[in-house]
Amino acid sequence: MKTLATHCAIALMIASVPMAWAQDADKKAAQPEAQAQDTTAAKEEKSPVDAVRDYSVERRSEAVAAARRATDELDTQMERLQTQTSEGWSRMSTATRERSRKEMADLQARRNTLAEWVGGMKHGSAGAWTEVKTGFGKSYDELASALRKARAEFRQAPAEKPAPTPEKPADKKGG
Question: What are the sequence ranges of the domains in the chain?
Answer without folding.
Answer: 2-156
